[in-house]
Amino acid sequence: MSAKSKLVLGIETSCDETGVALYDTIEGLKGHKLYSQIKLHAQYGGVVPELASRDHVKKLLPLVRGLLSETHTDIKSIDSIAYTKGPGLSGALLVGTTVANALGYSLKKPVVGVHHLEAHLLSPLLSNPSLDFPFIALLVSGGHTQLIQVKDIGQYRLLGDTRDDAAGEAFDKTAKLLGLPYPGGALLSELAQGGEASKYPLPKPMIKSGDLNFSFSGLKTAVAHLVQKLDVKKVMASKALKADIAASFQDSVTEVLTEKCLSALHLEGAKALVIAGGVGANTELRRKINERTSKIGVAAYYPPFEFCTDNGAMVALVGALKNSEAVYGANPFDIKPRWPLST
Ligand code: KG4
Ligand code: ZN
Predict the structure, then answer these.
(1) Which of 18, 67, 80, 148 is buried most, with the most CB atoms less than 10 Å from its CB?
(2) pLDDT band for position 4 (50/70/90)?
(3) Which residue ranges make up each domain of the chain?
(4) What are the start-end ranges of the H helices in 178-312?
(5) What's the rounded Cα separation, in Å, for the pair 17 and 55?
(6) Cα(188)–Cα(281) distance, rounded to whole angstroms?
(7) What is the mean pLDDT of the chain?
(8) Is 252 helix (H, G, I), strand (E, B) or coil?
């Protein structure tokens, strides 16, 4: 390790994934570990906050220990600790902040709280350290669908937002309608691969609204009506039918997202686009974005697939970028469950 490099431990506990990572400011990502609570929550059809917090308590320290041992890192060589301060579930966030601050206190190292959405939208830097500012970012996760102008680190302007459901939420709710377990976004996308989008065309909400906002709750309702019309039992019994509906739904969502990204790029005169958040793992979305941006000379950047959904690597990365903001002896309960990115 170079004399000037700093080693940052990142901790993510904002929702239902416990993530830890070590990021070296010169060498980059040294390692990461992730524990997903998906199986724990699947039986309830969504995340149960109290169960999420309890599971973070159980898993976080063993994950940190495992990470240190796999990367042959002495805990004393960590220079600072970054944790997700918000937005997210209060109880889950409290686990991350208390562990981060307790470690910081015992190691006499500074700690910095990271904005979860900022971590998502800077996550492509994990694989593209040369990505230049400014750029337009589409943040598409289970809780957010936002278009953001990123002028520089810490300088974010909201260009558009969803009026109701987030894109990932629409994927999950539609997946549920098709009998897939929670969270069904990735499973629905897999199912759609064998289907024909043109068989049952669905609306493309707000595609021509003239602004950069989104609305996806009507689309899920349109799928519910379609399933009723085709006969619920018939749909559930036919993988081919479900695949066609899934393909049509995915086509509508990805078409709207792509069109709005193109409008944002055009309006802001930007030359780079970042797609971040869980839905950024969707291959159809990536295909459409790549096809359209390559025609206008815009570079599209994505985090590596494994870092599209929640993870510790993106938190450690932002901790490294904001290393100068880390402080020793901070408030160990410093969380912001609701925290707009533009502040
Ligand atoms: O960023 P993330 O892990 O959590 C939030 O901060 O919300 O995103 C999770 C969301 C879920 O709604 C999940 O179904 C969706 O991302 N997702 C996908 C895919 N992989 C994950 N949606 C569509 N296609 C995928 N391949
Ligand atoms: Zn997230």
Answers:
(1) 18
(2) confident
(3) 7-123+308-325, 132-302
(4) 185-192, 217-230, 232-237, 239-268, 283-295
(5) 9
(6) 12
(7) 96
(8) helix
Environment class of residue 268 by beta-carbon count within 10 Å: exposed (0-12), middle (13-18) or buried (19+)? middle
Same fold, 7-123+308-325 and 132-302: yes
Contact by Cβ (8 Å): 11, 96: yes
Q: What is the pLDDT of residues 186-226, one digit of tens each?
A: 999 999 999 999 999 999 999 999 999 999 999 999 999 99
- Identity of residue 207: I
State whether residue 313 is helix, strand or coil.
Answer: helix
Can you tell me the distance from the alpha carbon of 235 to that of 20, in angstroms, rounded to the nearest whole number?
Answer: 41
Residues lining ligand 1, judged by CB closer than 6 Å? 15, 141-143, 168, 171-172, 183, 185-186, 189, 277-279, 281-282, 309-310
Q: Is 236 exposed, middle or buried (0-12, 13-18, 19+ CB in 10 A)?
A: middle
| Class of the CATH-defined domain 132-302 | alpha beta
Q: Per the omega criterion (within 30 degrees of 0), is the bond before 49 cis?
A: no
- Is the pLDDT confidence value at 274 over 60? yes
Number of Cβ atoms within 10 Å of the Cβ of 5: 12
- For domain 7-123+308-325, give the CATH number: 3.30.420.40
